[in-house]
């Protein structure tokens, strides 16, 4: 089984390793200077690093010459045109971390945490030209990991991504085998039930002093604590304080106590992370920018 892998982030390396171990990995498509490119160089694998859709289309001839049976997409970063995802004999499967059609788009894990979902999901779809609209090949609820209960309320985006990729990697070989042997029948998504996510910018992590004060007093505390975890590590949660000059203060960790938000760890612009208690002791006269 000849497979091409599309992926970029370090999170998706377990997927790449499973494909490399269990199938004939004939090519990798990733971004320049990524850990995935380094992996390809380490094992002398064919690797393509297009910067945009135009360059990706240009690789079509080379990808076609590899005569792939299947392509797997996992956290790649570019929109893959039809001319590319239809090259393999069995076309292309895309790994997505939500119960599609819920949370389509670039940030399903962040929305899982923000919405206070009780479990996470892995969905593998047959890629089409829409945004995560392809037919569902495989879908699994993730409520435990290695017999241990998965508690979304304890997870950050980074920690949950790592766990979901590991589980997806464990399932992938069987999914590929069953799909390519017609043992899995792709099911159409119910488009009327679709919800969508967005990409986050640094500004999305800003918290006003009014909102922070309310959460500390108990209003909106649970929602804000989820925000801390969902936006970790990117874009992070932050506010502006005066000491006396305006400075960005990163709000790194928090917890809920008696329905109130309690700050645990912060990082002043240009400084190392410290506990909230240490920060107050070091800057007793600070004030929030109003």
Automatic annotation (TrEMBL):
InterPro entries: Formyl_trans_C, Formyl_transf_N, Formyl_transf_N_sf, Formyl_transferase-like_C_sf, Met-tRNA-FMT_C, Met-tRNA-FMT_N
The enzyme's E.C. designation: 2.1.2.9
Keywords for the protein's UniProt record, in alphabetical order: Protein biosynthesis, Transferase
PANTHER family xrefs: METHIONYL-TRNA FORMYLTRANSFERASE, METHIONYL-TRNA FORMYLTRANSFERASE, MITOCHONDRIAL
Family: Belongs to the Fmt family.
GO MF term list: methionyl-tRNA formyltransferase activity
Species in which this protein is naturally found: Candidatus Gottesmanbacteria bacterium RIFCSPLOWO2_01_FULL_39_12b
Lineage, broadest ranks: Bacteria, Candidatus Gottesmaniibacteriota
Domain of life according to the entry: Bacteria
Keyword Transferase: yes
Protein's UniProt name: methionyl-tRNA formyltransferase
Record-linked CDD domains: FMT_core_Met-tRNA-FMT_N, Met_tRNA_FMT_C
């Amino acid at each position: 089984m000849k497979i091409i892998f599309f992926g970029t982030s370090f999170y998706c390396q377990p997927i790449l390793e499973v494909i490399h171990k269990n199938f004939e990995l004939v090519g990798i498509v990733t971004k320049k200077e990524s850990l995935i490119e380094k992996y390809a160089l380490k094992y002398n694998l064919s690797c393509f690093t297009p910067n945009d859709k135009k360059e990706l289309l240009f690789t079509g001839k080379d990808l076609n010459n590899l005569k792939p049976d299947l392509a797997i997409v996992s956290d790649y970063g570019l929109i893959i045109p039809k001319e590319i995802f239809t090259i393999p004999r069995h076309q292309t499967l895309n790994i997505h971390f939500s119960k599609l059609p819920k949370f389509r788009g670039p940030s399903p894990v962040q929305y899982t945490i923000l919405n206070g979902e009780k479990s996470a999901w892995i969905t593998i779809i047959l890629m089409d030209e829409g945004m995560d609209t392809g037919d569902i090949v495989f879908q699994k609820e993730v409520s435990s990991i290695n017999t241990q209960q998965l508690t979304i309320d304890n997870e950050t985006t980074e920690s949950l991504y790592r766990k979901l990729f590991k589980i997806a990697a464990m399932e992938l070989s069987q999914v590929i085998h069953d799909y390519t042997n017609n043992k899995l029948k792709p099911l159409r998504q119910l488009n009327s039930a679709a919800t969508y996510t967005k990409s986050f910018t640094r500004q999305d992590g800003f918290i006003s002093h009014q909102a922070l004060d309310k959460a500390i007093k108990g209003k909106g505390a649970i929602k804000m604590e989820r925000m801390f975890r969902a936006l970790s590590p990117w874009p992070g949660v932050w506010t502006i304080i005066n000491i006396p000059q305006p400075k960005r203060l990163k709000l790194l960790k928090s917890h809920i106590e008696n329905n109130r938000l309690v700050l645990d760890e912060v990082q002043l612009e240009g400084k190392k992370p410290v506990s909230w208690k240490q920060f107050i002791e070091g800057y007793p006269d600070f004030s929030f920018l109003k």
